[in-house]
Design goal:
Bound molecules: flavin-adenine dinucleotide
Radius of gyration: 23 Å
Largest sheet: 8 strands, mixed
Number of helices: 16
CATH class of the largest domain: Alpha Beta
Amino acid sequence: MSTTTAIVGQTVDVIVVGGGGAGLAASISAAAANRSVLLLEKEPKLGGTTGLSVGSITASATALQRRAGIVDSPAQHFEDMALFAGELAVRDNLELRRLYTENVPDTVAWLENLGVVFFGPMPEPPHRVPRMHNVLPSSKAYIHQLWKEARRLGVKALLNARAQKLITTGGRVTGVEAVVNGRIVQLNATCAVVLASGDFSSGRELKQKYLAEDIRDIDGINPASTGDGQRLALEVGGDIVNGDIVFGPEIRFVVPPVNKLVECIPPSTQLARIMRRSLTLVPSAILRPLLMMFITTNLAPSPSLLQKGAILVNKLGKRFVNELDKPVYAIPRQPEQMAYIVFDNKVAATFTGWPNFISTAPGLAYAYLADYKRNRRDIYFQADSIRALAHAFGVPVDALAQTIAEHNRSPAGQAAPLATPPFYALGPAKSWIAIADGGLKVNANLQVLDRSGQCIPGLFAAGSTGQGGLLLEGHGHHLGWALTSGRIAGRNAARATET
Ligand SMILES: Cc1cc2nc3c(=O)[nH]c(=O)nc-3n(C[C@H](O)[C@H](O)[C@H](O)COP(=O)(O)OP(=O)(O)OC[C@H]3O[C@@H](n4cnc5c(N)ncnc54)[C@H](O)[C@@H]3O)c2cc1C
């Protein structure tokens, strides 16, 4: 992806920090309001967690819903979101939930206009009707289409550009100090700065401060999600809401290695349309292998694999936990913080068809064992004996043989023996925090608020950085929020010469 080189040290109307979904959306809407926009991204490429995600957006009153004959409304979506929250419901930000549900239909239409193609909507109870829209061919399509539009509107992006401090003048945020390719530069914004730098799932300092003791040391999936925007705003008086709420920890496989063939195919509108047509016409058994090729995210193994008798072993070939008693907390304490799921053919025979899938990419790609064999050769191991299996996935042979022998001696009824060849291992799998929900306190204009609830002039936040206490439980609400809040924050930042 090529980016336009900006002249460092310059003054623009709006500076956006973070080149994921929220930052790109904010850049586009600020540029569409005829403002000059500079986007700072600390990584060598745009994308963020948005580009690593599964890619579902949950919305009501969309064209896809209408085409499927589904009658739905933002007001119903607002009500149903509460059903996901359980006991957390009292901590929700209802003003932002209203902002989200009322504006996300427009975001989906806007994305479709830009060339993003969705499949669905898929059901996800307790939503009363299907609302989950899955992007095709993968979440990379968001980044591809959004950057295309941003570039068309004249947005300039600086890569390897890490915002490290906000510049203030008379109490107003007027720019950003950034490290660009190792050089410190000051960048000035005449209208506003939008913080869209993601969450703090990999931010050691903020995790220490906000998360419970048993999860604060668990890695975030995206190492770049270090909560920089939250930290920058705290330094000028901002506040974090719901800092203790996280998605996870959960067990997920490592990401697939880069598929050179797939990487060469741009996530274009044409390709996505062909896929969508195929999804309705071609049997899923034929399509699944193709879809899996495009999945670039960390898939989560279904807990039922462990419930049906698979065990977890570490790099040393040793079992280390009762698999049914929160193994997610034990994996980070193992060598290289990883584990393998080991089972025999009796367990494997269960995971060959609906509803016994090994993993989900919600609504789109339920994957069974055969799909892993075909498409995830990097994490799929099969052998006719335990010793050969140990050899295949690289753990000490004697240790694994002893582990299985001990497991198989468990008193009858406690655990089914793993004794029927062939034997299988899937992994490495790790425990991860997927998303940390602690975002800056914002108002419905996405202006960042200080601890007393007053606006910090010139400062906006969007996406995870500007989550403001909004609960985004279920699938598809985080991306929906990133893109919707980004659009609103960018639009308001463009007008913010005095607010
Ligand atoms: C495996 C996985 C799957 C997911 N699937 C879904 C899904 O299907 N649906 C859904 O709704 N949600 C999903 N989510 C959550 C969702 O992807 C995120 O909540 C959302 O993408 C956040 O968007 P964002 O723009 O706020 O942050 P990001 O997309 O993370 O963008 C932030 C950007 O800011 C950059 N940055 C950080 N600090 C700085 C700095 N100091 N200076 C400059 N740049 C900086 C980062 O490098 C990054 O590029 C998933 C999350 C994970 C981990």
